[in-house]
Amino acid sequence: MHLESLADLHIHMHEDDPPHRGCSVEEIVRVALERNVKLVGVVEHYPAVIEYYGSVENYCAQVREQIRAAKEKFPEVEVLLGLEASILTVDGELDIRPEEARKVDFLLVGMHYIPAGGRCLPYEMKGRVSVGDIKDNPEYLSFLRNFNWEDLIEDWQEATLSLMRNPLVSIYAHPVQWPLVVMRKFLPKERWRLRKIEDLIPPHVAQEIFSSARKAGIAWEVNNGYLPVEYRVDNKYVGAGNRRGENSWSGMIDLFRIVGEYGVKVSLGTDAHVPMELERVGRLANAIELLRLAGVRKENIILKREQIRLCRS
Question: How many Cβ atoms from other residues are within 10 Å of residue 179's Cβ?
Answer without folding.
Answer: 21
